[in-house]
What does this fold into?
Amino acid sequence: MDLIADHISHRFGGLDVLDDVSFTVASGEVVAIVGPSGCGKSTLLSILGGLLRPSEGRAELRGAPPDNSFNPLTFVFQDFALLPWCTVEANVKFPLVHTALDAAARQAVVDDALRRTGLSDFRSAYPKQLSGGMRQRVGIARALAVRPALLLMDEPLSALDSQTRELLMEDFVRLLADGAMGAVYVTHNLEEAVRLADRVVVLSRRPGRVREVVSIPMTRTERGGIDARGKLLTLQNQLWSLIREEAIDAEREVQHA
Amino acid sequence: MPNARCSMLERAPSQDTRQDGSVPRPVAFRGAGFMPGGGRASGWIALVLVIAFWQLAGSAGWVNPLFLPAPSAIAVAIYKLAVSGALWQHVSASVVRIGSGWLIGTVAGVIVGFAIGLSTLARGVGITFISALFPIPKIALLPLLILWLGIGEEPKIATIALGVFFSTAISVYSGVDAVPRNLIRMAQSFNVPFHAIVIRVIWPGALPSILAGFRITASVALLLVVSAEMIGAQFGIGAFVLQAGNLMQTDQLLAGVVILSLFGLAVGKAINVLEMRLLHWR
It folds into this structure.
C-alpha cells in the first residue's frame, strides 16, 4: 500500500503553512520529512494520516492494505498520547477494543506487542510510573498491536534524552528491518533521518515546499556498522547545508513573532 | 590495564588534588521554605484547644450560655435529640431533599455539560443560557417554584436541583474542554468510534473536574436545603435551627449547626474516597 501526498497545500487562517507538497511513500519504505522549525512537517503528517483536512490537494492510498491490518495508517506521537488512567496493557489494548477480535485473540495480539517492545513485565504499570523512553515504547506497542502498513511518526524521540533516543532508535531499526512496515518519520533531527530513512524529503521554510528528496544509499543494517558512521555524517552534513540558512531565518522569525 | 573493555578511557581523579592551603567552606543552603508539609496533627491539637477553651469559658461563666452554650451543653442537646427520635426526623427530611435534588441536578448537569462540551450548537445555546441564569441566587426562585409546584417537597427539591445543575454543567463542560486534545486525536487516529471516545477518553479525562464540581455542588445543596427549610418546612435541619433560634434554645440551635457541619464533613470524606478510587492514576 503506497501513500501519496498529492499537491497538498494548507493554511491556518491567513498563514500559509504548506505549499503544493507532493511525494509518494512506497509500500515498506521509510521516508523522513525534515525541514526548519515551523515548516509544516507535523501538519503534513496530520494531513497524510487523515487527522486534518488540507486546504488544497489530498492524501491518497494506492493498493490494498494488508488483510490482517486493523489500522493501516497508524500514528506514533511525540508526546506518546497514552491514556493516564489505563495500565500499559490497557493502553495497548485500547485501539483493539472496538475491532471484531474476540477477547482471547485480542489478548494474544496485546501480549505479542508487549513482548516485541520489551514491556511484558510492565503490563500492570501506569504511564506516570514509567520513564519517557518506556512510555514511548508503550506508544510503539499500541501502534504495533493494530498491525499497521505504515507508521506515521511525529518526532517520536524528541521528548526523550539522548541515551534513551539512541536505544529507541535501535528498536526502530529492528522493527523496520524486514520491510513489512513502512514509515513516514517527521523529525528535526538529521541524524535520526539518515539512520532510519530510505529517502529524506527536505521541506523549505514556511510555507513548506518540497525542496529536495535525498536517497540514503545504504541498507538500515549497514548503517549500524562503525564503517558507515563517516558516510552517514557526510549525508547528515549535506542535509544540514540544505537547511541551515533557512533554519536561521526560521529561528529569527519565531523570535520576532 | 584495569579493564580491557575500557582500555581507550584514561582514568582521572574524582577530586582536585591541588594543595594551595585554602580551607574549603560549605555552600550555604538556600532552599528552605515554600514547601508546607501535609501533617494534620497541629490542626487536631488546635481544634481540641479551641473546644477546651470554649468549654472553660462556658463552665467558668465567662460567657452567657444563652448566647454561646458550652460544647458539653451542645453534646447533651444532640444526645437528647437522638434519644427522642427528633434528630432522625429532621436529618432524614433534609437528606431526602438533598439526595433527590442533588441527583436530579447532577444528572441533568452532566448531560447538558457533555452536550456543551461536544456540540457546537449546544455550546452556543447552552453557554448563553448558563451565563444568564447561573448568577441568580437560586433561593430567590423558591417563591416562584412554590407557585408552580405547590407547597410540598417539590419546590425545595427543585431549588436544590437548579443550584446543583448550573455548577455541575459548568464543571462538566470545563472538564470536557480540559481533556487533552492529543488523546482525542490519538483515539481518532485508531478509528475508535465517537461513542467509545466519549466513554473511554472524554469521560475519564473530565472526571477530575467533574468530581471537583461534586465538592462544590454538595455544599451548594447543603446551603440551599437549609435556606429552603428555613423559608417553609416543618421538618429538616434548617427548620429545626430556625425554630430553636426563635425559641432562644441556643444549645439546640448549635446542635443543628454541628449536625450540618458533620454532614458536610461526611460528604467531603465520601468525595475524597471517590477521588482516591477513581483518580488513583493521577
User: Anything to note?
Assistant: Chain A has a mean pLDDT of 90.
